[in-house]
Design goal:
With about 230 residues, the chain is α/β, with parallel strands linked by helices. The chain contains seven helices and eleven strands. The strands form two sheets. A nine-stranded mixed beta sheet has the order 2-1-3-4-11-10-9-6-7. Strands 5-8 form a two-stranded antiparallel sheet. It starts with a helix and ends with a helix.
Length: about 230
């Protein structure tokens, strides 16, 4: 009797596992910053996650037209500036619906003339002089990465590590952006990743992620994977 019960439990578990739908994300890039193949290889190896890749301006058109309602989360790896007023409104409508968003690396530079964008992503990279001057960047830098909370679902199981990547400095970080990753390296803004609540949605920004040295870094891969899993839990 015990053997039959165990077999029944195993069968039920397998049925549930087989029927579990994968997380469906929309992966957004732009012509100016289309990532190399290692970026997509990273997502191809994420268990339980499937994606559709779309290039701007198509993504903003889909957001305005409501096509993105069919995705569990939006992942932005774009650097883009052109956006209409209806498209701006559609972003906030998505956030009110609870649509989670993950922004990566140079997406912080997007929409220089859309002031409200910083309230979505949680900060801003200034291409031109602001009150404190323009933001800066530096390629091929060894950056020490510190985990702020080892128990947070996004960073759980990850120890402090180093990564060779591009720095951003002299950027705006909004006060209500809660850090997930930090660095004490001079010449880089202090937060390397943060999380925030926007309308009814969770939004995460991850500054690191310039090229294949990040995309093939096992710690970076795990952070991206766990961020998507957390946003779509």
């Amino acid at each position: 009797m015990k053997i039959r019960l165990c077999n029944l439990i195993l069968i039920l578990f397998l049925l549930i596992s087989c029927n579990k739908k994968p997380i469906n994300i929309l992966l957004i890039s732009s012509e100016r910053k289309i990532p190399d193949s290692t970026f997509f290889e990273m997502f191809n190896h994420f268990n339980g996650i499937k994606y559709q890749h779309v290039i701007q301006p198509k993504a903003n058109e889909w957001i305005e037209q409501g096509f993105t309602d069919n995705f569990d989360a939006l992942v932005f790896y774009d650097l883009y500036d052109s956006i209409t007023e209806p498209q701006k409104a559609a972003y906030f409508q998505l956030l009110k619906k609870g649509k989670p968003m993950l922004f990566i690396h140079h997406s912080l530079v997007s929409y220089q003339n859309w002031d409200s964008f910083k309230t979505i992503i949680g900060g801003k990279y200034f291409r031109e002089d602001s009150v404190n001057g323009a933001s800066t960047f530096e390629h091929n830098v060894t950056i020490p990465v510190k985990i702020t909370d080892v128990n947070h679902p996004v960073t759980k199981g990850i120890n402090n590590f180093v990564i060779v990547d591009e720095t951003y400095d002299n950027c705006l970080i909004l006060d209500d952006s809660q850090p997930l990753l930090t660095t004490d390296r001079i010449g880089n803004m202090p937060y390397l990743a943060w999380i925030r609540d926007v309308e009814n949605s969770k939004v995460i920004y991850i500054q690191i992620g310039h090229d294949k040295r990040a995309f093939t870094n096992c710690n970076y891969q795990k952070i991206i994977y766990q961020a998507i899993k957390y946003l779509t839990k």
